Amino acid sequence: MAADAARAAPRQQGDLGPEAAARLSAWLRDYRTLPGVPDELFDVMRRPRADWLNLLAGFAEYPETESRSRFAAATRHIRDTGVSYRVYGEETERSWPLNPLPLILGHREWAQIAAGVEQRATLIEAILQDIYGPAKLIESGALPAAAVTGSIDFIRAMRGVAPPGGRHMPLYAVDLGRGPDGRWWVLDDRTQAPSGAGYALENRLVLSRAYPALYNSMNVQRLAPFFDGMRKGLVASADRSDPRVCLLTPGPFSETYFEQAHLARYLGFLLVQGADLVARDGRVYVRTIAGLKRADVILRRVDADYLDPLELNGSSHLGTPGILEAIRTGGVAMVNMPGTGVIESRALLGFLPKLCRQILGESLKLPNVATWWCGQPAEHERVDREFDNLVIGPAFNTYAGSGEKSRPRLIADLSSAERATLRARLNDRPGDYVGQEVVRLSTMPVLRGDRLEAAPFVLRVYAAWTPEGFRIMPGGFCRTSEIKDVRAISMDASARTADVWVLDDKPTESTTLLASKDDVKVRRILGHLPSRAADNLFWLGRYIERAEATLRLARSLCTSLMVSDSAIHSSGETLEGLQQLLIEWGALDKDAPAGSSLEAARCTVRDQDAHGSVIYLVRAARRTAASMRERLSADFWALLLNLETELTDAHRAPQSEAEALEQVESALQILAALSGLSQENMNRVAGWRFLDMGRRLERGINACRMARTFAHDDATTDDLDLLLDLIDSQISYRARYLVGIAMIPVRDMVVLDCFNTRSLAFQVETIKHHLKALPTLQDDGMIEEPLRLLLPLSTDIETTEASYLTIEKIRLFEKTLMYLSGAIADRYFLQGATAVPTIKLASMG
Predict the structure, then answer these.
(1) I need a labelling partner for 614 at 20 to 30 A (CA). Which of 233, 340, 573, 833 fits?
(2) Which CATH class is domain 373-436?
(3) What confidence tens digit (pLDDT) does each residue in 587-640 have?
(4) DSSP characters for 793-833?
(5) For the chain, what are the domain ranges?
(6) Contact status, residue 368 vs residue 349, Cβ threshold 8 Å
């Protein structure tokens, strides 16, 4: 703490200690800028800029080992909380790549950027108002009709529709790069469904944790006011005072799903997929366990073409049938409005400078990359004449055969045959292409090891409409390239990210998203749980419990075959029953040789292809949890990832039965921590009830299966002893029965004992308590199907005497639990087109 306090104020080079000064000098001396390319660290006279020098001096104060350990500790947060992204076409997610150094922008320069972004957002909103309104720009010839209607993102169904709050585009983002002349240039407009704001939050969290004193001392402007304004703007677009705001995601396979979940959690919005919504009578509703609940505002991250399979892309599974009609009738506010993506077409870029002068009466403060749409004869001729020196790109956001959005092509990088093919296509359909000037981006310093290197970068800045007007995020989302190519066209290759620190000239006040006491109505129920979330939580509980049960079997397998005097169940039918149960569960191959304990243990725990193995179940749990990250704490997610790492680490592959047993015990401890976390840290609302019901149902089924396997009529003492091990009841049994192990009391403890937390009876009573606490769809007083199945089962268990408990009765209990699982799904997991609750829509809130 004292060391942190000493570094509270950034120092100049002369104020540093010898080691820090030498380190900073080496950074500056060895830093190599790219020829003819401006750099953020040095001015035109190759003098370090003051703000950057202060930052680097602060970093130099940390010894190399401490700096690395601080950043490593902070970036562990990235792994532990699953901060990730997905590259298009890849099945697995990648961990979020973050540079230790932020991009630094002074307050004066930032004021110019913010003014330019606000002007551009205002201009684009005016163009959208005209395109989907009177169309005077097209009528006057200021904007060619083909440049608008040729875009797949132009939604004719939205013409004449009044947007909520009077704005088509409440959220806007723009990609900027600094050109050779030192000015900031617009590379791309993001008007469809701007992404990355959640990642900007994560970048800020990691760096502020790694270097808190440095962060506070440099007067970095906070991000919270932007998000507060954004949230207020979304709420203001609704027609109710207490609206339900949803964030519509394409789902867990989206490239930026984590960011969407993080943003929904941070802003307090409901994260939904298209199947979670239903459009009825001009309104949109969320499918919840309590029936359909109205969605007032939808912040979408789904491209407009996929929103409504009835009116737009009929093959879409990401949208909701009828949602466009609900938008047209004003039954839901959509942000951004469908059709705003038309502005992202490169065909329009070349018209914006003239339109700005015509509409706003002023020149663009942030100029475009020079762009010529080839749908005009003069521009086509110019592009054809300068073909070899340009970037040729699609005029509209079309898709290549792979499904990926087609990208601009730098002619200088193409072969002769590729150039000829592209030129022929351009001349055949010139309106489909634009020519653009090759942009050479400026560079910024990044740390690689202990060296400071120059990297090209692009800055994404966000604007959100609030009741007070546009608010610009002070900072944004910065991407850097690992490749020493400063042409904007190459920024997608090997990209990393950096936080963006906008410095103020005075200390900044701490801000939060806390509302005033008069703005919030007290609640003790966290809204209405979407059916999909209930489904996922239910199965998350089942996967975790099934993994625990399999680990207990694996533990018994290890101890059964260890060569020692204390080994138990070492031969005979007990071992066969143990292995047979593992085979039935899909955790062990049926051809596994008996007595091969180490291989059997390895397969049970680590076989990634066996559908019943522990690692298979843990990965299923992780995938299920990934689809609802906004509902799980960072600690829960970290434990789940630690468990997967524990079971897949090649260096931890067991080489002996003792090592296999140690790994199993370690995994069981992590599962115990997960269980404790869910019991002690989750609010007792519907989400927790479904998670716990999944565990209880799975545990009850497993108790029945284990009882049938090891407490059959011809069971031996070893069988019954193993069964007590599997249900973790050895201590309880021996404290209660001093005469030794006997069949009837063991069956009673496993199946009928309501005081044993591992028994079937305890699970049934707990599930009954959960079901009675959940909402009902009808108010006619009739019992719903899950309780209709469960109540007779509960009564049967309560009234059965242990001496009359047979294997057939246990089998009947197990079948009833299986039916109960289906009844819970049918009642609460309202998905699909035919899943319509019986409650009247008119009475829904």
Answers:
(1) 573
(2) alpha beta
(3) 888 766 555 567 777 888 888 888 999 999 999 999 999 888 878 888 888 899
(4) HHHHHHH--GGG--HHHHHHHHHHHHHHHHHHHHHH---ST
(5) 2-95, 373-436, 531-682, 707-830
(6) yes
